[in-house]
What we know:
By secondary structure, the protein is α+β, with helices and mostly antiparallel strands.
Amino acid sequence: MSRSHAIGAALAVAAIALTACSGTDGGSGTAGSDRPGEKKSLTAPKAVILSANSTAQLGTVVIDGLGFTLYRFEQDSAEPSTTTCVGACATAWPPMLDESGQEPIIEQVDKEIVGSVRRPDGTTQVTIGGWPVYRHDADRAPGETAGHGKDAEWFAVTPKGGKAVEQ
């Protein structure tokens, strides 16, 4: 699957989920109303969405439901799953959290290796192959991989939980 197809598929899934999650208000004329001319409020999908994306430089990597590349951090551990990126680190590298309690939506990623770990702040972070996964705040558009190789400690994660290797 090409990068553009993977991103398009992920965005289509997110759009469907957004549409399905719009709320109603019992007819008070606010968000969710079916009255002509009134805006509907949409709620972001709550379930974690993971899929694979083929890149020219890194091969196939995992992206989130908005198409952003996910990374693993070499100072974390997969056995046992441990997250060490907190504070300023977690600002630059936002952890992929799952507080939904819903089954993740997973495409082209081995479902058996998707899990979670409790972070020091009590939130639940998604893991792939035991590795906690993160986004990078420097990735401004879906499909970017600016965080790969950063400080020789951050690597895009593959659908099997490994670190991506430049092609």
